[in-house]
Design brief:
The chain has 14 helices and ten strands. The chain is of the alpha/beta class. The strands form two sheets. A five-stranded parallel beta sheet has the order 2-1-3-4-5. Strands 7-6-8-9-10 form a five-stranded parallel beta sheet, sandwiched between helices.
Length: 357
């Protein structure tokens, strides 16, 4: 007679799946560097040989924020003009632009959304070099694309994407480095540092107490940190339902600054490098308005804020810091949601694969 399985006492805890997937991130990053990097470099080498004249990036949701990060990499590291596509021009309006020698990169965790598949197919028919970056090499998107990069994150069951986001960032970084003939060595520090950040969850839990009753939030950054600000806002909205508005620091000064007061909290993602330097005038203005300013960034910046979380940026290249920046913000979304009595594993009205057309 077979003994009955012992029930898992943690199986019904809110946020159990999201917490487990966040904890996997160091292992996922290590796997990409050890096992995925050669294949990524090979794809990059073959695409570089075709000398694309510019790049179009296609994505939705969290993957759209990863694509925005790739846009910064491609324009800064390669000097290659990039744009973010509007899929409805193809799927709804039937436009068929000439995409000869254009690299179209489609980023999607599942690779299953019909509009992503349709727009990628149309791009390939219009002469584009098509690359899918997904967590599913057997997906319809991978099938219609000429090239594919597997981000190797493993199954992701929680509705809020965490490990697939950081995996996408690292895969895109290694791809861009491959295009320019680099070896991606600056990324080698990421798995260990990611593990150190996850071990500081108690710090984030203390920070989360500031936002338990927040009615809205503003998140800002510049440069490589701007995709982090957008992704953090998305995570907070889809888990805790707090309206979180993300702005480039430059855009924040062009009007939205007027809504900032000493009640609505502002989170600033301060990348250690040129992006952080460009954000400095914005931080000065926010402090001048008496904003409840929380900084995610270097210790020198956190010391000047109302509160914050110090990132281990010393010796870390600016272009790979976004892989680390988002981790405490993922933890923050998780902790705020738990504090508000909600379950981050099951946001209302959302599905894991969103089938837009």
């Amino acid at each position: 007679m077979t003994a009955a399985a012992t029930p898992d006492p943690l199986s019904d805890l809110p946020g159990r799946i999201m917490a487990g997937e966040m904890a996997e991130q160091p292992a996922v990053l290590r796997r990409i560097l050890a096992e995925g990097a050669p294949a990524i470099r090979d794809v990059a080498r073959r695409i570089a040989a075709r000398a694309p004249r510019f790049v179009l990036l296609t994505a939705r949701g969290t993957s759209d924020n990863a694509a925005l990060y790739a846009k910064y990499l491609l324009e800064i590291r390669l000097g290659l003009p990039c744009g973010l596509t509007s899929m409805s021009t193809t799927t709804a309006y039937g436009a068929r632009p000439d995409l000869t020698d254009v690299l179209v990169i489609t980023v999607s965790q599942s690779g299953g959304s019909p509009d992503l598949v349709a727009s990628t197919r149309a791009a390939r028919e219009a002469g584009a070099i098509t690359l899918a970056v997904t967590n599913n090499p057997g997906s319809p998107l991978a099938d219609v694309s000429e090239y594919h990069i597997d981000i190797m994150a493993g199954p992701e069951k929680a509705l809020p994407a965490t490990k697939t986001y950081t995996a996408s960032l690292l895969a895109l970084y290694l791809f861009v480095e491959g295009l320019r003939g680099g070896d991606g060595a600056p990324a080698q520090v990421l798995p260990e540092l990611a593990g150190q950040l996850l071990a500081r969850q108690d710090e984030v839990r203390t920070l989360a107490a500031r936002y338990r009753f927040a009615e809205r939030m503003v998140i800002t950054s510049r440069g490589y940190g701007y995709p982090t600000a957008k992704e953090a806002a998305l995570k907070l909205m889809e888990t805790s339902y707090i309206p979180a508005l993300s702005y480039s620091g430059a855009d924040l000064l062009h009007g939205p600054l007027a809504m900032v007061d000493n009640v609505s909290p502002v989170i600033a993602v301060v990348t250690d490098g040129k992006g952080g330097e460009a954000l400095q005038p914005v931080l000065d203005r926010l402090r001048g308005r008496g904003a409840d300013l929380v900084v995610i960034g270097p210790e020198s910046q956190v010391e000047q804020a109302s509160a914050g979380f110090v990132l281990p940026t010393r010796g870390v290249a600016e272009e790979v810091q976004p892989v680390l920046e988002i981790i405490p913000l993922q933890l923050l979304a998780y902790e705020v949601t738990i504090a508000r009595g909600q379950d981050p594993d099951a946001p209302r009205a959302l599905a894991k694969v969103t089938e837009t057309h």
